[in-house]
Amino acid sequence: MKISQAVEAFKIEQQIRGNSNVTLTNYERVLSYFMSYIGKDTNIAEIGLNELRSYYMSLRARELSTVSIQTYIRGLRAFLSWCFQEEYITENLTDKFKLPKAKRRVIDVLTDEEITRLFKYFDTSDFIGLRNMCIVLLMLDSGLRLSEVVSLKVSSVHIAEGYIIVTGKGNKERYVPIGLQCKRYLMRYSVYRDSATGEAPLFVKGTMTAIKINTVKGMFRKLKKCTGIERLRPHLLRHTFATRYLENGGDIYSLQMILGHTSLEMVKKYLHLIPSKTVMNFSVYSPVDNITRKHP
Question: What is the DSSP string of 36-84?
Fold first, then answer.
């Protein structure tokens, strides 16, 4: 079987499993790079450890970030593991073709002043301004991904009850709480969507058609320019939420559920950002200090 045929079969398998379009697009992108290197007409059975290591070295030669290289290899490993299960290859190459380590980058979250500056930009008396304010609030105050915000339906939002139902990676649904300010602005925005029900998109353009990912990306480009926050990007809001949630006393287990991460390890990266806060507030949590306060 040609590798191009194996990739097509793998993509069909991902659709059967119910993986999201975002996941499918990512697999397609990652595997297209590998096919360009190895040759799409190459027999899948001819690929061995030497070819994989050679491909890895070619990625390093392109001066990609360690995170990007890890993403390419992770997708390729998932494909190779599936090929072994389907008996397209006779050796489980992932046993020896390990995921390379990626350099952990320090997450530089938004400051209080930057968050205030961000919110002051929006004119919430205007429909588009109010919509954009709600989008930013959901990403900053509830940790939603860009793709998750864009895919929200009217029926997903339960303002009075204080939660929304989010469809995340792998089409997995989860409950995400929303804060009081977020509820306030979503309530105002719901006036514009009053006639929309059920599976209608929550966030729309002025023509009442669904927004796209590029709509939000364009908004962030404008925000970056107008607020002067050069490092501003959608995922920075998610990082800021996670860090502030832990700073404010939230626990790592509930954070994992809110963010929709399958592994606790993916959440632990935020813990190193808050040691000073932990030390400063330790007296609040200290068993001995609490006993002393109760029984002076």
Answer: HHH-TTSBGGG--HHHHHHHHHHHHHTT--HHHHHHHHHHHHHHHHHHH
pLDDT number for residue 161? 92
**Strand, helix or coil at 268?**
helix
The whole-angstrom separation of Cα 68 and Cα 62 is: 11
As a whole number of angstroms, the distance between CA 11 and CA 15 comes to 6
Domain assignment of residue 289, yes or no: no
**Angle, CA of 4, 8 and 9, to the nearest 5°:** 115
Summarised one tens digit per residue, pLDDT across range 26-45 is 899 999 999 999 999 999 99
60, 132: one domain: no
Of the CA atoms within 13 Å of residue 196, those in its CB half-sphere come to 20
Model-wide pTM > 0.70: no
In the chain, the number of structural domains is: 2
